[in-house]
Amino acid sequence: MDKLQRKSNKKLIIVLIFSSLGMFGFGFALVPLYDVLCDALGINGKTQSTASVYQPVVIDKSRSITVEFVSQVQSDMPWTFKPEVNTMQVHPGELIRTHFVATNLSAKHIVGQAIPSVSPGQGAAYFNKTECFCFNQQVLTAQAEADLPLIFFVDPELPDSISTLTLSYTLYNITDKGYVASTAVEQGAAR
Amino acid sequence: MSTITQDSPAAHDDHHDDHHHGAPKGIMRWILTTNHKDIGTLYLWFSFIMFLTGGAMAMVIRAELFQPGLQLVEPNFFNQMTTVHGLIMVFGAVMPAFTGLANWLIPMMIGAPDMALPRMNNWSFWILPFAFSILLSSLFMEGGGPNFGWTFYAPLSTTYSPDSTALFVFAVHIMGISSIMGAINVVVTIVNMRAPGMTWMKLPLFVWTWLITAFLLIAVMPVLAGVVTMVLTDKYFGTSFFDAAGGGDPVMFQHIFWFFGHPEVYIMILPSFGIISAIVPAFSRKRLFGYSSMVYATASIAILSFLVWAHHMFTTGMPVFAELFFMYCTMLIAVPTGVKVFNWVATMWRGSITFETPMLFAVAFIILFTIGGFSGLMLAITPADFQYHDTYFVVAHFHYVLVTGAIFSIMAAAYYWLPKWTGNMYSESLGRWHFWCSVISVNVLFFPMHFLGLAGMPRRIPDYAIQFADVNQIVSIGGFAFGLSQLIFLAVVIKCIRGGEKAPAKPWEGAEGLEWTIPSPAPYHSFTTPPEVK
């Protein structure tokens, strides 16, 4: 191999190595990119993680939306977690108060975190919560039971194609994860 | 250890000598070699051993599925078999086989004396046995090896995975590094070491397809490395990339994985297109029809492969516009692929065709790969995919494109270039036996899977409903027959290495390319002075 070729090989190798390192970084850049895209397009059913403000708007009495509540508990978590009602009819713009009931069946103090998801995903942006237990971590002492409040309204701008919104909560045990407990709210009383 | 230290001074001397003479002798020849032909041979043997290992796992799967109910293995072991079978076949059999072919053929096809980076070439092969030893050893750990499918979806690979998952992650890291080094070597070789007069549009298509494959490898293998790293930190270091409880999203895993995974399936088929484009004209005794359209079709497939990843995820609840986008992009890939298939058929049209074993495999490739392509189109139709998703229909689809596609093209390539590699002709009658046994059994094995899938049999489950029993029995018999047929190939290769009719420099009448201008077997050092390409 002559000198000239060695030099151009070296240049190409450097470019290729940096491209592969760049793509390694791109793999990680996909993580925030994913969140931003889902947020901007409102596509994966994630709802907002902070309370929204209810401005009294015209309540659209002519339209009625079915809202369904679904709850799941992480399989090895010794809690029960159920909505107060499974389904309700709401008018867009109407402020609705409901609650979920959680019970710690174990003899231990457990920290839970509920993760909401709305289906169909395009409806998530129109489902506004002014108060939700999912904004905080939930701490239940042994055998305690708590009512977890949820106050929401459906945006009247909800597309006509959507007539049913399903709000699903999955409750995770995060006691051992060591998350900061500053936002945790101690709930309930001994049964 | 002592034997190595005793051997090494001699081997060291040999190594100096090999710049002037033939191959050095002994085991150290293979460990220290920087010769592209030696490394190609190592890759090809390694890939064949992995093919048999992964095949043995497939035999366990088919034996368990021979009857409904659980009889031979535990469900957890069954899951490990499906997972490691997939990983070994993708990263251990198909990809190293193509790298082996690239090592052997690219320098000879472009008139270069060797690969551009011989020392890195040695490294990129020799880290592979370690990667697969780590992966296979994890099967013997307490709690078992990886059991979450080769796609290692979170949270199966994070929350619910066995303790040995770190070994899986490191094995994938090493395989990825090996592939990236191999790809860099191929790009530098092709860009900088072509013989004078070998312009871009004179490159053999195998070289073109490999160049494009190498760019795909450099683009997506690092993303795979990234996603396994996220799995590692999620499982062992408390991050929450894919854990909803900590603000992550398990669906994001699938997006990142398939961003790697879909270009990966083209990594495993583009070099096949190059091989078939060499073999079909040779045995049709005509020039390849539509050379430049082949080049552009390959490039378009590579570009489109980055825009279709979410067709693996139609059932994750994507919005309709995304499902339509990915559906149409996926169907668009059928256009350049169709260009290729029609070009091969047009090449055969009115050719004076003979059916030696390489051509038999090439023709079977065209027909059976097209069947796999059609079932792929069916899967691309979003509403239909909701029924086919995660059934045996998908298993049938990707085995048609990978076994009768990629593997058949590798077999075709082996038969086509064996005379050049060994200097001897292989046994044509044994080769035909291998072909006919393979092509019949592979269809008995995979074709009925379409019907199982349409009837609703889910994939990756060790048991099934009673009504699937008969068809599964037929499939398993086909599987055992296909596995045994591959031993004929082993016999052919060993027989060919040990002797046989001497091969001329150009054993195939219609073959074209620089590799046929050097004697058979190809001398240890070829094209030390570059040939002039007119």
UniProtKB/TrEMBL annotation, chain B:
Keywords: Cell membrane, Copper, Electron transport, Heme, Iron, Membrane, Metal-binding, Respiratory chain, Translocase, Transmembrane, Transmembrane helix, Transport. Pathway: Energy metabolism; oxidative phosphorylation. Pfam families: COX1. Its EC number is 7.1.1.9. Residues 30-534 form the Cytochrome oxidase subunit I profile domain. It is found in: Cell membrane; Membrane. The keyword Transmembrane applies. InterPro entries: Cyt_c_oxase-like_su1_dom (IPR023616), Cyt_c_oxase-like_su1_sf (IPR036927), Cyt_C_Oxase_1 (IPR000883), Cyt_c_Oxase_su1_BS (IPR023615), Cyt_c_oxase_su1_dom (IPR033944), Cyt_c_oxidase_su1_bac (IPR014241). It is a multi-pass membrane protein. The chain crosses the membrane at residues 42-63, 83-105, 125-145, 165-193, 205-232, 265-283, 295-313, 325-346, 358-381, 393-418, 430-454, 474-494. The keyword Repeat does not apply. Residues 1-21 are annotated as: Disordered. It catalyses: 4 Fe(II)-[cytochrome c] + O2 + 8 H(+)(in) = 4 Fe(III)-[cytochrome c] + 2 H2O + 4 H(+)(out). Residues 10-21 have a biased composition (Basic and acidic residues). NCBIfam families: CtaD_CoxA (TIGR02891). Cytochrome c oxidase is the component of the respiratory chain that catalyzes the reduction of oxygen to water. Subunits 1-3 form the functional core of the enzyme complex. CO I is the catalytic subunit of the enzyme. Electrons originating in cytochrome c are transferred via the copper A center of subunit 2 and heme A of subunit 1 to the bimetallic center formed by heme A3 and copper B. Belongs to the heme-copper respiratory oxidase family. PANTHER family: CYTOCHROME C OXIDASE SUBUNIT 1 (PTHR10422). This is Cytochrome c oxidase subunit 1. It comes from Shewanella sairae. The lineage of its organism: Bacteria, Pseudomonadati, Pseudomonadota, Gammaproteobacteria, Alteromonadales.
